[in-house]
Design a protein that fits this description.
Largest sheet: 3 strands, parallel
CATH class of the largest domain: Alpha Beta
Number of domains: 2
Shape: globular
Distance between the termini: 42 Å
Strand order of the largest sheet: 1-2-3
Structural class: mainly alpha
Length: about 325
């Protein structure tokens, strides 16, 4: 049961095609949350420029990310969908919060260490201050709950710290948001089932929401089913594929039958893999159809984003006015 009338904020980076892991781990849940809550879903393009990117394709990626949000079921009549860079209050509040943020808190962030290691030629200040901007994203809307993955929970905790510090310094104002914990599928790589599904691992490791049926069948056919992991841990590619089927299929008797076959070591992958591929294709078909339809209506998409921007700014501007008054800059 979802909480009633809570304020929800979450964002997606425009860094390329979304995959099945994004859908099952986050976007599907967002669609459910919008039914009973005040939801703000944002294409966080400022966050996306902290790593190397091509400027000439960024605006296209922003629109594609918005298309994906609409295609998976987000309804602009039920939630606010907007682009981060179109609401300047995000960066203005980020600067104010940065004056309250201990440097040590940023330096201990796991994601900063990971990104700095991955992009050694571009260790920029934005990578370090990314969590402060994320805190501003969240606090700007007086958010109650933030649906994020495990890799972002540390940032939400920093947001709580900054809200508390602001309140203690300038008077009670911000809520301390919490992570929204939902039971979601943990979707693993098709080729390295000890790792989460990710675009960064390569196209054959993940299933894009836009993959055509023949590509899905090819990727599933090549998916590993053996046991074992790089450090001797027990990792089952077969279990990974079966779990994916159990999440996507509504056929309870068949899921029970396949689980029994797997437990007995009798699951026939030559028969199971085509079944899994067909199930994935069936789930993605309406999403792809909706996306294709929306792609033919660029003016409608622009209107949705502009309306979302205006709705977001109404709240963001009030928050910033209140904050500036409290810190003596009104």
């Amino acid at each position: 049961m979802f909480p009633r009338e809570k304020i929800i904020f979450s964002g997606v980076q425009p860094t390329g095609e979304l995959h099945l892991g994004n859908y099952l781990g986050a976007l599907k849940n967002w669609s459910a949350l919008q039914e009973h809550n005040r939801c703000f879903f944002c294409v966080v393009d400022y966050h996306a420029i902290t790593i190397p990117y091509q400027a000439k394709v960024m605006s296209k990626r922003v629109l594609e990310a918005a298309l994906d949000l609409l295609a998976v079921g987000l309804d602009p009549e039920k939630c606010v969908i907007f682009v981060q860079s179109q609401v300047p209050e995000h960066t203005e509040l980020s600067w104010i919060l940065s004056t309250l943020t201990p440097l040590g808190e940023l330096e201990r962030m796991t994601q900063y260490k990971d990104k700095a290691s991955e992009h050694r030629q571009n260790i920029n200040a934005g990578l370090l201050t990314y969590p402060v901007l994320m805190a501003a994203d969240i606090l700007l809307y007086q958010t109650d709950l933030v649906p994020v993955g495990e890799d972002q929970t540390q940032h939400v905790e920093l947001t709580r710290i900054l809200a508390r510090k602001f309140n203690n310094t300038f008077g009670e104002y911000f809520k301390e948001p919490k992570v929204y914990e939902a039971t979601v599928a943990r979707v693993m790589s098709l080729l390295e089932p000890n790792k989460k599904m990710s675009k960064s691992l390569g196209p054959n490791h993940c299933l894009s929401l836009n993959d055509p049926p023949e590509v899905i069948r090819r990727k599933i056919a090549k998916a590993v089913t053996d046991e074992g992991g790089p450090n001797g841990e027990r990792v089952s590619g077969g279990r990974n594929l079966l779990n994916l089927f159990k999440v996507l299929s509504e056929d309870k008797p068949l899921k029970k039958e396949l689980e029994e076959q797997y437990q007995a070591g009798e699951l026939k992958y030559a028969e199971f893999k085509p079944l899994l591929a067909d199930t994935i294709i069936k789930v993605l078909e309406p999403i792809q159809a909706r996306r294709a339809e929306l792609a033919t209506k660029p003016q409608e998409l622009q209107k949705i984003l502009l309306d979302g921007r205006d709705k977001a700014r109404l709240i963001a501007q009030k928050t910033l006015r209140d904050v500036k008054e409290r810190i003596g800059l009104a």
